Amino acid sequence: MSSPGSADLVIVANRLPVDRVTDDDGTPGWRTSPGGLVTALEPVLRANDGTWIGWPGGEEQDLEPFEFDGLDLVPMTMSAEEIENFYEGFSNATLWPLYHDVVAKPEFHREWWDSYVAVNRRFAAKAAEVASEGATVWVHDYQLQLVPQMLRDQRPDLRIGFYLHIPFPPAELFQQLPWRRQILEGLLGADLVGFQLTGGSQNFVRLVRQRVGHKTHRDLIYLPDGRTVRAKAFPISIDAAGFEELARSESVGTRAGEIREALGNPRTVFLGIDRLDYTKGIIARLRAFGELIEDGHLDVEDAVFVQVATPSRERVEQYRILRDEIDRLVGHINGDLGKIGRPAVSYLHASHPREDMAALYRAADVMVVTPYRDGMNLVAKEYVACRFDNDGALVLSEFAGAADELRQAWLINPYDINGMKSALLEASRAQSRDLTRRMRAMRRTVIQHDVAAWADSFLEDLAAVRPSHGKAVRPAKRA
Ligand code: G6P
Q1: What H or E segment, with its residue span, contains residue 132?
Q2: Most-buried pick from 85, 137, 177, 439 (CB within 10 A)?
């Protein structure tokens, strides 16, 4: 067992909650990342003398731990080869597509796996170094599934939680992974394994029973060494009050008006905001919109689709292919259906600050969220949080985790283009009474279950897991 550090709460995630920025005079600095996770964890980190371990992105080496805005951050470095094999390779070209319904074909390469093991080992060693005696360590997401067990081997005194932000696939798909057993055993190092939805946690428990041979009962797994592991759903959320406050601000209101003006004040603004990812169904939704214009159901004089696609994982082949496809499709739709000063699709390939997002959410009439598979989809929740007037329609894929909570959206199957077309039309023609009824109910859900409630409930359940089940169970069978 390595000697303890001083942090009572340690967050371990592939990314640090800050991004690299260069000041006007050329000196490098840091800026808080826009994600909601930081907002949620910041108060708990401060209250617990917490530390966040993660990669700041890029190849920069020799980074020392530092304090930013009162948070203790420990940057992990990655070599060019690790970025290629661990991050772009195993994390984003093997696990990402495999866990998202095999929407793209996952690639299996042994040298990617070796790099995944090596990087996970380094993250685990760092967590073991900084965590105090009996500390709580919360490990995040698919990039670090081996960390829980690696950490427990070094520091059995710790309370370890793991949360998966993306879907956990059914056994039939997970089975493809040559290293399926190692991943399951890595996760079982945690006391509590959290998922977005109950389906994911049930998939996990079933796989543990079948593949590792441990005894399970409902959401509990009994390990032969006497430990209990709990698997449970904790649907993640957003800083709803923060988004609403931003949306209500005068500057965002003005900006929203300017956006509509710049679009030529059409009757209906459809909006899509996504990371440029093949799981998001961007092509399908644009095709559906294009067909509605072609069929004469919509007219470019009074309808426009604003699509924002944030650049992501640009060196991974599938992402490059998708970018080219979207470029081509948008060109096609606008070339065939647009008029002078009236493109059918207004397409932006860039990331935007939170204020711009809030202005777009306010400017939209119909928010269109159509992933083929998505752990949660926080964009849908952000849109709802920003519609404080209880107006605006949401068209939402039933394959997004958010569909479990946002039942009053127009729910669609993104593989069914005709169904999607009908929903887009219906949503854009809905009576304001109908819109208000739906939005009011969705807002109640999002405001009540915000990201702070999510973090609290995970940490509460983690603290409550009984370390020992006291049952006599046989050692795990080899699958
Ligand atoms: C998803 C994942 C996160 C990831 C984020 C951005 O939300 O669940 O773990 O950080 O995408 O992707 P990136 O590869 O840029 O970190």
Answers
A1: strand 131-140
A2: 137
Q: Tell how far the Cα of 437 is from the centroid of ligand 1, in angstroms.
A: 33
Six-digit token string for 203? 């998939």
Q: Can you give the pLDDT at residue 36?
A: 61
Say what the pLDDT of residue 55 is. Answer: 95
Secondary structure (3-state) at 36: helix
Bridge partners, residue 272, by sequence: 307
Rounded to the nearest angstrom, the distance between the alpha carbon of 143 and the centre of ligand 1 is 9
pLDDT at 438: 98
Residue nearest to atom 12 of ligand 1 (CA): 312
Give the DSSP H or E segment for 73: strand 71-75
Token pair listed for 148: 């829980």
CB of 100 within 6 A of ligand 1: the answer is no
Number of other CB atoms surrounding residue 415 within 10 Å: 13
Could you tell me the pTM of the whole model? Answer: 0.96
Ligand 1 contact, 141 CB (< 6 A): yes
Residue 83 Cβ < 6 Å to ligand 1: no
In whole angstroms, give the CA distance from residue 282 to residue 286: 6
Counting Cα atoms < 13 Å in the Cβ hemisphere of 386 gives 29
Q: Which of 145, 166, 451 to mutate to test the pocket of ligand 1 (most atoms within 8 A of CB)?
A: 166
CA–CA distance, 100 with 87 (Å, rounded to integer): 17
The pLDDT tens digits for 53-85 are 999 999 989 899 999 988 999 999 999 999 999
Give pLDDT tens digits for 140-150: 999 999 999 99
**Residues 230, 191: contact at Cβ < 8 Å?**
yes
Instruction: Answer whether residue 377 shows pLDDT above 80.
Output: yes
* 457 contacts 234 by C-beta, under 8 angstroms: yes
Of how many residues is the chain composed? 479
Across 447-469, average pLDDT: 92
Residue 366 has pLDDT above 80, yes or no: yes
Chain centre distance of CA 81: 25
In ligand 1, which atom is closest to the CA atom of 87? 14
pLDDT, average across residues 27-33? 87
The whole-number average pLDDT for the span 28-33 is: 87
How far does residue 18's CA lie from ligand 1's centre (Å)?
13
* Crossing angle of the two packed helices 282-294 and 417-429, in degrees rounded to 10: 70
79 DSSP 8-state letter: -
